Amino acid sequence: MEKGIGRLNDLTHDEAEAAFLQCCGSTAWACGMSARRPFVGADEMLRAAEEAWEGLDEEDWLEAFSRHPRIGEARAATGQTGTEKEWSAREQSGMDAAGDAARRELDELNRAYAEKFGYIFIVCATGKSPEEMLADLRERLRNDPATEIARAAEEQRRITKLRLEKLLEA
Question: By the 8 A CB rule, do 143 and 112 touch?
């Protein structure tokens, strides 16, 4: 991981911002992370990521969400790099075991979620089965908008942390 920190510290601002954007689709967050360099180590970078995330507003969160594909789909609404597509596919690999009925329900509930909240259902899917993701989606559809945006932002924060770790290992 320390080799990855050195590599990130050596990038230009724009190159680092692009690398961070693969971890979290908020341009404000990615720019802030690039500006916080150099990092002494992974722990410092992860603390900086938390601080940068806490400084964002709802518009920034929505931008980050838009760079994810819906659960069960391969493409995001807005551009994804090859790395982001690969990470999303691995993160959602639990869906590979989903049957037709689960996929239909997921598609239906994804639409209902987007209609209710105005953005995609975002969940840290790593290690989750299709049944767990469906149960989470059903539960979260009962949330009010304020509760749900906070929950979705927390899920994005978790995804970002996992992706930062992947970035350092690359």
Answer: no
Domain coordinates of the chain in residue numbers?
2-169
Known active-site residue 13: no
- pLDDT-derived band at 73, boundaries 50, 70, 90: low
Q: Which two tokens stand for residue 133?
A: 């993701």
pTM: 0.85
Residue with tokens 């961070």: 20
Q: What is the DSSP letter of 72?
A: T
Q: Which of 24, 39, 68, 69 is catalytic?
A: 68
Question: Domain 2-169 adopts which CATH fold?
Answer: UraD-like (1.10.3330)
Buried-state track 28-55, b at ≥16 Cβ within 10 A, e below 16: bbbbbbbebbebeebeebbebbeebbee
